[in-house]
Write a structure and sequence with these properties.
Layout (H helix, E strand, L loop, with lengths): L6 H58 L9 H8 L26 H4 E5 L4 E4 L8 E7 L2 E8 L8 H51 L14 H50 L6 H27 L9 E4 H18 L3 E5 L5 E6 L1 H17 L6 E8 L3 E8 L33 H11 L3 E6 L5 E8 L4 E2 L1
Parallel strand pairs: 6-8
Antiparallel strand pairs: 1-2, 1-4, 3-4, 5-7, 7-12, 8-9, 9-11, 10-11
Helix pairs in contact: 1-4, 4-5, 5-6, 6-9, 7-8, 8-9
Bound molecules: adenosine-5'-triphosphate (ATP) and magnesium ion (MG).
Length: about 475
């Protein structure tokens, strides 16, 4: 089912929106700053012009002795204040009201006015605002008048307006290009950032369809790289579990099929009259049924002993006590098999552990049964216990036969049996040590197999102690 909008487009729009907002804010800030800067620049220009007007007006005053020559004489006035380099329009015929000089782009001539020494208007702009700039006109050190200028409030004249409009137009163009560029970059970034995520999503989809061989490339060291690594690990574990499950099911069905086939054959022989129905025949049937029953019990035990199963009832348990009791129960069996049982464990000492006593008994019984089954008559089993600060180490060492070195790592696998115990008469299903490992690991301990110096097998079990050793 496609999800819309995809995370790529969401990220794309998020980045794009951020860029657009930044571009708009910058455009607004730039516009304000441009307008103010532009006005400031124009006003500064004008002040400089005002400065050049002062000596012109002073010398005109000195010539006439007063300002009367300028009163009601705008033509004269404009010719006096015209920008330098402009032709005088005074003499041009046919002009009643002279226009301000054409190159006076900022309209300065219309905003400047002349005041007499008492600050009364002589000529020029009559609307003097309070922020008008006043400069003195001095003749022989005496103030004879003032030249006043109303500063710009806004850009209003044609050329300045055109300049401003041009600026606005190019800023729209720049803004448009910036947004297009931002969209392109946002699209590339969104695709680039999310590429690993898309790969992981596709791989997860393949995994759900049962393709456990699927892997993703770990391209970075960030969270996405970690995710890819974890994904690969997950796929590996799932694949391994699936393989184990298949092997386990195959083993289970094989183990069940063999005694069933034997049973079926024997029953058919009885039915056909090939074999007489004697007590011995019935005993044989019963033994097959018993084998089946034990296998099913073992499988059940195995499932119960799996770490995390609810069937553990742990309490303060003296491991050495459980071991002594388990060994006592096997004494008779060992005597029958002519195997000596030696115990080298601290007497009158307890080693408490937070454990399920029934499961511990099962662990020791499995190890004792193996020793009894896979040790030649005349041999011996030596059990030792070494107490350490926080752990207890138990060793079960027997005499020959042992287990070839290459088989040692597989002993704890389900259904693993040594070659010589392949025959059903001596060997079991190969679940005993797998159950042992489950029990030990459920008690946070370890179990390992190695060759015994006595010539047989050595099983080493380490279990954590609850409160150290007590005497
Ligand atoms: N003390 C031992 N000496 C020699 N070989 C051993 C010893 N204990 C186990 N083995 C070998 O390890 C194999 C696995 O043992 P495990 O207890 O798991 O299964 P099993 O005894 O064959 O069957 P089960 O215990 O399920 O009845 C055995 O088949 C045997 O070959
Ligand atoms: Mg066994």
């Amino acid at each position: 089912m496609p999800i819309r909008p995809g995370i790529t487009s969401k990220l794309f729009f998020a980045i794009l929106l951020t860029c657009v907002v930044i571009a708009l804010a910058m455009a607004a800030a730039m516009r304000t700053s441009f307008n103010q800067g532009f006005l400031g620049y124009l006003n500064e220009q004008e002040e400089q012009r005002l400065e050049t007007l002062r000596p012109t007006l002073a010398s005109a005053y000195a010539q006439h002795g007063n300002w009367d020559f300028l009163r009601h004489n705008p033509r004269r006035w404009f010719s006096l204040i015209r920008p330098p380099g402009m032709p005088a329009s005074e003499g041009s015929p046919g002009r009643q009201r002279p226009a301000p000089p054409e190159s006076d782009l900022t309209g300065l001539s219309l905003r400047v006015s002349l005041l007499d020494a008492q600050k009364n208007l002589v000529i020029g702009n009559p609307r003097l605002s309070p922020d008008a700039k006043l400069k003195t006109i001095e003749v022989d050190g005496q103030t004879v008048g003032w030249v006043a200028l109303v500063p710009f409030q806004q850009v209003s004249t044609g050329a300045a307006l055109r300049f401003q409009a041009q600026q606005l137009k190019s800023s729209y163009l720049i803004g448009g290009i910036a947004i297009l560029l931002a969209a392109l970059v946002a699209w590339l970034l969104a695709r680039m950032f999310l590429a690993p995520l898309r790969h992981i999503a596709a791989a997860t989809h393949r995994l759900t369809t049962g393709d456990y061989a699927t892997r993703v490339e770990v391209a970075s060291r960030d969270e996405l790289g970690q995710l890819a690594e974890d994904f690969n690990h997950l796929a590996l574990t799932l694949g391994k579990n699936e393989k184990l499950r298949r092997a386990f099911m195959a083993d289970v069905s094989h183990e069940l099929r063999t005694p069933l086939a034997v049973l079926k054959g024997e029953l058919e022989a009885l039915q056909d009259g090939v074999r007489p129905l004697t007590p011995a025949a019935i005993l044989s049937l019963q033994s097959e049924v018993a084998t089946l029953g034990k296998l099913i019990d073992d499988l059940y035990e195995l499932s119960l002993s799996d770490a995390g199963a609810l069937s553990y009832r742990k309490s303060q348990t003296d491991i050495l006590d459980v071991l002594r009791m388990a060994a006592d129960a096997f004494r008779e069996r060992f005597a029958q098999r002519e195997i000596a049982l030696e115990m080298d464990i601290p007497t009158r000492q307890a080693a408490f552990c937070h454990a399920d006593p029934d499961r511990l008994r099962q662990l020791f019984a499995n190890l004792l049964e193996n020793a009894a089954r896979y040790t030649d008559a005349g041999g011996k089993l030596v059990i030792t216990a070494a107490l350490e600060q926080r752990t207890i180490k138990l060793e079960f060492q027997d005499t020959k036969p042992g287990v070839p070195d290459d088989m040692l790592p597989h002993l704890f696998e389900r259904f693993f049996r040594g070659e010589q115990s392949r025959s059903r008469s001596t060997g079991g299903a190969g679940l005993g040590l797998a159950i042992c490992r489950n029990i030990v690991e459920s008690h946070q301990g370890t179990i390992a197999a190695s060759a015994s110096p006595l010539g047989g097998l050595r099983i080493t079990v380490t279990l954590p102690l609850a409160n150290g050793v007590t005497s």
